[in-house]
């Protein structure tokens, strides 16, 4: 099985889109994504569901250390 987490470059190749477009979609919340150390990451299973129209985003509140 391939890695469960994709980088922006891998996502762009997988979706056959430009990396700038992938960044834009992630920032706008158009595709399921999360950040690690300021860099976008994508869960392969969520992206596969997204491309099939089966992805249902979860509503998670911001976690605070306060």
Automatic annotation (TrEMBL):
GO terms for molecular function: DNA binding. It comes from Legionella moravica. Pfam families: HTH_17. It comes from the Bacteria. This is Prophage regulatory protein. Residues 8-54 form the Helix-turn-helix domain.
